[in-house]
Amino acid sequence: MKQIDTDIVNRVNALRKALHRHNHLYYVLDNPEVSDAEYDRMMRELTALEEAWPKLYDPDSPTSRVGAPPLSEFETIAHSIPMLSLGNAFADSEIIDFDRRVRKILRTVDKILYTVEPKLDGLAVELVYENGKLIAASTRGDGINGEVITANVRTIRSVPLLLQDTGKRNIPLRLEVRGEVFISHEGFRCLNEEQLSQKLPPFANPRNAAAGSLRQLDSSITAKRPLEIFFYGVGDEFTDLELKSHWETLQTLQELGLRINPLIRPEVTIEEAVDYYKELEGKRHLLPYDIDGMVIKVDNLSLQAKLATTSRSPRWAIAYKFKAMQETTRVLNIDVQVGRTGVLTPVAHLQPVSVGGAMVKRATLHNEDEIGRKDIRIGDTVLVQRAGDVIPEVVKVIESKRTGLEKTFRMPLNCPVCGSTVIRAKGETATRCINSTCLAQLKERIKHFSSKGAFDIDGLGDKLVEQLVDKGMLASYADIFHLDEVKIQGLERMGAISAEKLVLAIEKSKNIKFSRFLYALGIRHVGEHVAKILAEEFKSLDNLLAATKEQIEAVEGVGSVIAESVVNFFKQNTNREVISRIFDSNVCILFQTHEKEKTLENKVFVLTGTLEDLTRDQAKEMIEAAGGKVSGSVSRKTDYLVAGSSPGSKLDMAKALGVEIIDQAAFLKMLSLPKPQ
Ligand code: IVH
To answer: Of the candidates 261, 19, 47, 40, which has an alpha carbon nearest to the alpha carbon of residue 161?
Structure first.
């Protein structure tokens, strides 16, 4: 038998330890220390060693997230403490009643402190750790008995297979933790793309996708699904943690490596809870995942025990639900919009309906195939949905409401804006107008050019771009820099002040980073991410112009489709002319900061609230240019929280963790920069 060299054992152990740590930094603290490439290299090395030396198999190795052999059915297990549900409230008055009830049972007139949390729209699970190891996971089931889904839960990257040992406390003998498994909007989009490419039906919403993924008998399928988790409580525990409050429990979970939601706000009065509900409802569309309300929990655990539970739900907590994000309405008509790259998108005009507090009048139908698949006809009654900040869409047709008078929609044969013949390439779902001088495309190209991630020209909104194009004042995006202030003043809804502001904003946008410049050009397949990669690699426009397709293709993260699109774009004379006209008006591409200016090397920043003069993106760029990092959530690794007005829960987290909090002035001072003019 092959004897395993101690060097190999040591290397495997070191890699496992490092990868566990990097998983924690990446998935739980949102604060990675190594690049994705470095992480992949370590993972590959460990996989190779484990394959070569099967005796070193360890079920808790970071490589063991690919799933176990399929099951024929799930086993069930009784929860040692039932997993209850929550009572619901839909109005402020019901929350005030809840607080009154709590104080009545506790026979107190004193203010009660609550911890409030976003109510995540996923599935409840319970995980059991024994001596720091994940040994079981189950669904909520009927609350008493759940289904055993251990192999599936083990594939979720943000679930630690081993608890984090900080050395500060004993690892619990046994700990049952509860949390919500969900899929983010981005994960949902990718998953549905994948489903469609494999000719499988797409999921209706992220929650269904999460449910379908978690209840897979074959965990190797679950392993390919973008599931995530946030933990929000404990079941039974055999620990010496001596927890006194719910907030303390949550912080302990975070320390053990169990990810908690960054928007949790601890220790608030009932009035503050109601205010926070409004804030969360306003922010809801900006979050990268679905939440359907806010959970209000009495913070003090001994008060929780006194309040106890009914057979269905605890008396110490309540869910304050948001307005529904789905509604039914009628499709009045279907028309077609032409986008920046000439793609024709069918859009449903709906009987206006309030969905989740916002009026919805239109919904995207994506493309011809999607309309066919859902069989959406003019006159149909449909279920519409808003998810996150995306454009509303039609989920399905309510077939029982059909009268027989509905009309089938056909994609037009000509561009509705310029009239040229449209084309649908073989194997593509998109129908396109290929006339590059089509005014619809021009308008969209200019909107993209001035958008946030590109030239970021404040005041050059969609309506204004449309007017400027229609009036013949913009025939390409280069014309933006030649706009005449006097002529702008004469436009609809424009006065001398807004015209002056716009000219100033255009002037300000002229100093631009290379990556933003590249993104602004609107080259097909060059989104913000690819633009950053190209800018990083080629450093200047001249270098990129001189590069061959092969050289571009050789860059990591850039495929042949992108490379071809870039080369084709710069080959076209019209594009070269527009670019040279941009430079005629003193547009200047900023270069990377030099090494010696990296004053914030390795410092981790978190941004929150609105800064006086800087947008979040600008502050982020400045930090990164000076060698610092920006993280999305506050953790012990955070060096500074830059807080503007209306800072939100990150400020609470920073205070709780003793992170240094600075304002814009202090931040600029740190970079030795004056206040922007
Ligand atoms: S606490 C006994 N906190 O809501 C109360 N639940 O209707 C236990 N949920 O089954 C639940 N986010 O799936 C709690 N921050 C949160 C939550 C949350 C989502 C779900 C959970 C539970 C359901 C209760």
So the answer is: 19
Q: What is the pLDDT of residues 28-85, one digit of tens each?
A: 777 777 777 788 889 989 999 999 998 998 888 998 887 777 787 899 999 999 999 8
pTM: 0.61
CB of 317 shorter than 6 A to ligand 1: yes
d(CA 559, CA 256): 40
Catalytic, out of 119, 321, 443, 650: 119
For ligand 1, atom 3, which residue shows the shortest CA distance?
A: 232
Residue among 79, 86, 246 whose CB has most ligand 1 atoms within 8 A, to mutate: 86
Does 364 share its domain with 488?
A: no
Instruction: Please tell me whether residues 93 and 241 are part of one structural domain.
Output: yes
- Phi/psi for 341 (5° steps) reads -100, 15
Please indicate, yes or no, if residue 331 is contained in any of the structural domains.
yes
Average pLDDT, the chain: 90
Determine whether the shortest distance from the Cβ of 120 to ligand 1 is under 6 A: yes
- In the block, tokens 């049952």 appear at 176
Q: For residue 628, what are the domain limits?
A: 604-670
Rounded-to-integer distance, Cα 165 and Cα 186, Å: 32
User: Look-up: residue for tokens 């527009």?
Assistant: 578
Distance (angstroms) between ligand 1 centre and the Cα of 556 equals 42
Return the best residue to mutate from 98, 138, 295 for the ligand 1 pocket (most ligand atoms within 8 A of CB). Answer: 295
Q: Dihedral sign, CA of 288, 290, 294, 300? A: negative
Residues 341-349, mean pLDDT to the nearest whole number: 95
Among the listed residues 613, 615, 659, the one whose alpha carbon sits nearest the alpha carbon of residue 633: 659
pLDDT value at residue 382: 94
Q: Is residue 11 one of the residues assigned to a domain?
A: yes
Active site residue 321: no
What's the CA-to-centroid distance between 274 and ligand 1, angstroms?
18
Does residue 318 have its Cβ closer than 6 Å to ligand 1? Answer: no
